[in-house]
Amino acid sequence: MKALVLHHEKCTGCSLCELICGLAHFKENNPKKSAIHINRKFPEPGVFEIRVCNQCGRCEEACPSEAISRKDEVYIIDPEKCTFCGICIEKCPSHVLFTHKGLSYPIKCDLCGECVQVCTPEAISWSD
Amino acid sequence: MFGYGGKILRVNLTNRKIESEDLDPQLAKEWLGGRGFVAKVLYDELSRGVDPLDPGNKLVIATGPLSGTFWPSAAKIVFGTKSPLTKGYADSNLGGFLMAELKYAGYDLIILEGASKEPLYLFIDDDVAELRDASRYWGKGALDSERELKDEIGESFQFATIGPAGEHLVRYANINHDFGRQAGRCGMGAVMGSKGLKAIAVHGTGGIPLYDSDGLIQITQAALRHITSQPYFKRFRLYGTTDITDWCQGMGVLPTRNFTYGDYDKEDKLAPEPMREKILVRDKACFACPLNCGNYTHSKKYGTYIDGPEYETIGMLGSNCLLEDIEDVQYLNYLCDNYGMDTIGFGGTIAFTMECLEKGILKKEELEGIDLRFGNLEAIKAILKKTAGQKGIGKLLAEGSKSMAEKLGKNSDAFAIHVKGLEFSAYECRGAPAMLLSFMTSDIGAQHTRSWAIVQDMDMGRDNIQGRATLVKELQTLRPLMEMFGVCRFPWLEVKLDFGEYVRAFNAVTGFGYGKEELFRISEKVWNLTRAFWAREVGDFGRKYDLPPGRVYEPVPSGPAKGMHLTEEKVNQMLDEYYELRGWNENGIPTEAKLRELGLEEVAEDLKKLGKA
């Protein structure tokens, strides 16, 4: 099964993944509109943590509006059906459904793989 | 406007009035951004003769059109002011994430005016901008304040902070961001401190409008492929700027013992490998940067975390002060960062002070009993603390080496290693004439980044001065464009990303459709404007301000550059050639014809009125 593998220790925190995600999905140069985010813990201990959906499907189970559906190995949010009730965000065990004040639905990874292409330290890769 | 946030934030610290103005499209078209904006605003808005630490001085903070975009290493923001260290034009830039955040909040420029008696910080969250009380942060370290502000306001905010050195107006105090990126040079932190501004907090959620977003994606992806396919990419990623340390040692250009020597017998203790083996935590990048030159380190011995040390710090605090352990350099780097003080300026000043003590120009009693011998870490630490707090003898050091030499006399100016009052970056230049000419003519004083010509020097023959003026002028024209675009130079410099690609990216972002020649003309215009600023502000400004310290005429005593030195004749010949290429008179002042040719008619009038052009 196709999946993203995260090597947090290789991440340099450059944000190119966040940038390309926003450009690819919203045609905007805006890393705040991204389905992938990097947590930064500085100055101590000095680590980056890459946060992105692992397609566990708990959001689909939780959604009361049937706005989330599975297509192959990916769970996708339908903005038309989404009521932005926030239940999926609460239920997400990895806290990787993100919001942006300009959008009325959560941003979720659709495994497009654009981030893998631009990750020069190879901190994000495919499982196969 | 494509590529720009579109707004200017004008903040008056005296009456606490904050105004948002629209960015004039003409300003963008004629001055691009970053350093171009800084130069234009300072020239136009500062009253002639203003004291750098007076409320009438301004601190200008500018992004460029590429800052915060997808373009590789689009991570520069420029701070500019009239320098309290040099009394002339100054700008200094930093990487990290501040530039992107500011653009996402919609701002290209912040202009800080006036001064507050109470400590404040500037809070920006998209459209909200306000001044808030910072009294609980005043007195705290620049790194410590950043952490505490993040805890208070939010991890998603980006910060610029000053430390005690800035609060106490140390003339080479800097501005910190992202736990170890600094606008290091010329005393930006002192000007911020003089305004009572402890920090700036920024958060933005908007995007940057692009003229041709598909085009930018394409050009950037091609650039990333180019960068990662270069042989030097892997090594530069590992070592960053520290990779040059061994090379400098081998060429005899590593400043050692206050620039007396060009190589250091303990260099292997400071070289890049021991740093990675002993103290590296991880590789760390600025915004959108595939090169991640940052080495984030932790010293177990001292319990300190910092981004670095960079090569410049290894040279200025390591070999130049004769420290023998990379962990000691890391620790001193941490102390400087947290005090909020430039490691280059302090490194140059402390090495000068050590030589003064050695030569008997300063007595141990005058140093309050501190045994400031080369290599004495404890003594350096003690002096550093006094300097950051302007206590006792620290008041003298806090002025920088030029001012110290003027006060101490006894020909100490011969080994006060600065130009225009700004201490040399870490390159010993007696066998590197183009690098020396770069230091001499840089428009902020002896800083390396305007024209980093030292590699070319080795190819051109170290004992002649041919072609140096041409080379330096070319570099000084291309390189500063990076800080007008708002990007880092390293992809171009280190892994040979062609400048033409930058021009394509600039046009994809802005839609201006400029060619190289047009951009070079703008860069030359900025260079002439900053030169005119010096001529306007400094009464007797001219050739003598471009001259290097006497040490460059003493032969290098030993090592790979043994015997190399400049002569006054060669130095003046380089200046003659350089002034002629620039269209300046024999005293180094832009001619009326040159200024008019560049469209700087009003500047030509100003200098004429002053009897200079």
In short:
Chain A is α+β, with helices and mostly antiparallel strands. Chain A has helices at 16-26, 58-62, 87-91, 114-118, and strands spanning 4-6, 36-41, 47-52, 68-71, 74-77, 124-126.
Quick one: which chains have the greatest interface? Answer: A-B, 34 and 43 residues
How is the CATH topology of the largest domain in chain B named? Aldehyde Ferredoxin Oxidoreductase,  A, domain 1
CATH architecture of chain A: 2-Layer Sandwich
CATH superfamily of the largest domain in chain B: Aldehyde ferredoxin oxidoreductase, N-terminal domain
Q: Overall pLDDT of chain B, averaged? A: 98
Biggest sheet features of chain A: 2 strands, antiparallel
Tell me what you see in this structure.
The complex is a heterodimer of chains A (128) and B (613). By secondary structure, chain A is an alpha+beta fold. Chain A has one domain: Alpha-Beta Plaits, CATH 3.30.70.20. Helices cover 20% and strands 20% of the residues of chain A. Chain A is built from 4 helices and 6 strands. In chain A, the strands form 3 sheets. A two-stranded antiparallel sheet of chain A has the order 1-6. Chain A has a two-stranded antiparallel sheet with strand order 2-3. A two-stranded antiparallel sheet of chain A has the order 4-5. The radius of gyration of chain A is 14 Å and the shape is globular. The termini of chain A are close together. A 6-stranded mixed sheet of chain B has the order 2-1-6-3-4-5. A 4-stranded mixed sheet of chain B has the order 8-7-12-9, with helices on both faces. With 613 residues, chain B is of the alpha+beta class. Chain B folds into 3 domains: 197 residues, Aldehyde Ferredoxin Oxidoreductase,  A, domain 1; 191 residues, Orthogonal Bundle (Aldehyde Ferredoxin Oxidoreductase Protein, subunit A, domain 2), CATH 1.10.569.10; 162 residues, Aldehyde Ferredoxin Oxidoreductase Protein, subunit A, domain 3. The radius of gyration of chain B is 22 Å and the shape is globular. Chains A and B meet through helix 1 of A and helix 7, strand 13 and strand 14 of B.
